[in-house]
Amino acid sequence: MGVRRFGRVNWLGLRTLATREVMRFMAVWQQTVFAPLMTAGLFVLVFALALGQGRGEVMGLPYLVFLGPGILMMTVIQNAFANTSSSITSAKVQGNIVDTLMPPLSAGELLAGYLAGSVVRAGLVALVIGTGMVVVTGAGVAHPVWAAGFVLLAALLLGGLGILAGILAQKFDQMAAISNFIITPLSFLSGTFYSVQNLPAPFDTLSHWNPIFYLIDGARYGVTGVSDAPPLRGLVICGLCVAGVLWLAWRWLKSGYRMKA
Asked: Per the UniProt record, which residue ranges are transmembrane (predicted)?
């Protein structure tokens, strides 16, 4: 009793949890995959109609070409966060979190299983919106590997933050507050619709303390080849943030903080 009989990693349990997290959002793909495409399209449409041809180039790019990667990454960020946070919060509110805690899954396996859903959802959303962006703007992807790397970092970082938020929140109102007052402002105020070079002091400096700025700026570099900050610096900062967030999420899952009675 109490001895793991399936090796160092419970691959069956991990695969089952990851499959459950993917099937959660694929069961309502109209809301989780198609709806973000509609939202991104509305953003582009509104800016195109409101600004028309009157908006000059930004960082040497037509404004809609500049805007596309920011909207793509903002949508990826919101969906990656929502996937893990809603999964944990729903399970806690409905009282079936025990179904996840009782199986012989380690903290690392729980973390990987939850993150798998965020990574797959973020990847699908990025693929759908990226395809639409290429069709609308007619511009290709300058550095596909960089773009994919920053999308992956965004999925891991916001998926990890979603786990932390899901553990902290005891009801949906608290989760909505975290999303509305922390995640959404950080994503909107990180160069999604503008270049931070145009911000007055000290807001231009403060923007560089926002890790989401580097995610959006890195995605813009991957798609267009231009960026506000060196992409390698953004890669290092985002990697460190991902490591810190995932370590904290692992510690909380291991201790059962706000998850176990």
From this structure: 33-51, 63-82, 111-139, 145-169, 176-196, 234-253
Residue 141's Cβ-count burial label (10 Å; 0-12, 13-18, 19+) is: middle
Ranges of each domain in the chain:
11-47+61-255
Residue keyed to tokens 């419970």: 10
How many other CB atoms sit within 10 Å of the CB of residue 69?
29
243 pLDDT higher than 80 = yes
196 touches 204 (CB < 8 A): yes
Q: Helices marked H in 95-194 — which ranges?
A: 98-101, 107-137, 144-168, 172-178, 184-188
Task: Give the CA distances from residue 91 to residues 26, 27, 77, 85, in Å, rounded to whole numbers and listed in that order.
Answer: 18, 17, 22, 10
Over the stretch 99-154, which tens digit does the pLDDT of each residue have? 998 888 999 999 999 999 999 999 999 999 999 888 887 788 899 999 999 999 99
pLDDT in tens, 141-199: 899 999 999 999 999 999 999 999 999 999 999 999 999 999 988 888 888 888 888 77
Q: What span, in angstroms and rounded, lies between the C-alpha atoms of 110 and 182?
A: 25
CA–CA distance, 208 with 98 (Å, rounded to integer): 41
